[in-house]
Amino acid sequence: MQDNALWTEKYRPGDFSEIKGQKEIVKRVKAFVEQQNLPHLLFAGPAGVGKTSLALVIAKKLFKDLWRQNFLELNASDERGIDVVRNKVKDFARTRAIGDVPFKIIYLDECDALTREAQQALRRTMENYTQTCRFILSANYSSKIIEPIQSRCVVFRFKPLDKKDVMEIIEKIAKDEKLKIDEKAKDALWEISEGDCRRLENILQSSAAITSHITEDIAHSTASIAKPKEVKEVLELALKNKFIDARNKLLDLMLNYGLAGIDVIKQMQKEILELNLDNKSKMILMEKCGEIEFRMTEGSDEFVQLEALLSQFALVGNNQ
Of 174, 270, 273, 303, whose Cβ has the fewest other Cβ atoms within 10 Å? Predict the structure, then answer.
């Protein structure tokens, strides 16, 4: 089994046809590449859905063997100051491309982490060097990119991968790495990854390091996620006014899986929808989850807050 970086590189697409779940985006970008006429692009969307992979495919298709010399990748969360834009970006942008394509490509990953001053400097650089350079900007939240930059780019909004796409990736990896993955484990991997392919690959690699036969239990323990039915049991105990039993089971779950309080809240929030309660009660409990999550992020003790949340479940149960 390869180390993590090599594993990710191995399953990174090398062709447009290999990029899953973004059919319309790929179709439009492919047309730009075929015409060798690329505008500035802004890729917006959650992590692990193919933004960086698509940028690399664009570079490889445009520049062929010379793609490394004509493609600069910077992670803006590491290098987020104005000096990076003034020095690294400008130095690369001002020289002409090697080969037949008339421009180079600069890929700025996580550019929503750039300071506003750096974004203003980037805006001017994008204007001044359009003849020799195209920018591909990647962001989790496009709203954090200043409007002048957004107006200079064609914006593509990526979505989390569908279950069908995730299952195809699981099947391919299982075949290539000679893994046996149970059907329940596949469903668990889909639920845990939430459409994030990078997370899926990391969990699969960690599981494969333990055994070549991956089960639902191994998938959950590797991802440090409690099984949904176990979380549901905790909530049902609280609703039946068995507060102490619910509290003890929750503590066991947190210790066994190494869960943080925020992780538990997110799993509880999902399971509320599956409970046998009326809509009003579900709304009340959802609101309580939001309140407890806010308290945790402000620094409150996790377990005290989770006990308070369980007590709210018990009160709602008493009113049923």
Answer: 273
Q: What is the CATH number of the domain that holds 172?
A: 1.10.8.60
Helix 197-210, helix 216-223: angle, nearest 10: 110
CATH of the domain at 282: 1.20.272.10
What are the Cα distances from residue 266, in Å, to 212, 306, 315? 30, 12, 21
Cβ of 244: how many Cβ atoms within 10 Å? 9
Site of tokens 């047309």: 31
The percentage of residues in the chain with a pLDDT greater than 90, rounded to a whole number, is: 19
Domain boundary, last residue among 113, 137, 157 = 157
pLDDT tens per residue, range 41-97: 999 998 888 898 899 999 988 888 888 888 888 876 665 566 666 677 777 877 788
* Entry field: residues in the chain: 320
Q: Is 217 in the same domain as 242?
A: no
Residue with tokens 């308070």: 308
218 and 246 in contact (C-beta within 8 Å)?
no
* pLDDT reported for residue 82: 63
What pLDDT digit, counting tens, does each position of 79-88 carry? 556 666 667 7
Q: Average per-residue pLDDT in the chain?
A: 85
**Would you tell me how many other CB atoms lie within 10 Å of the CB of residue 280?**
10
Across 125-187, the runs of DSSP E, i.e. the strands, are 133-139, 154-157, 180-181
**Whole-angstrom Cα distance, residue 137 to residue 127?**
15
Is the same domain home to 251 and 309? Answer: yes
Same domain? 107 vs 237: no
Expressed as residue numbers, the domain containing 118 is 4-157
Specify burial of residue 147 (Cβ count, 10 A radius: 0-12, 13-18, 19+). Answer: exposed
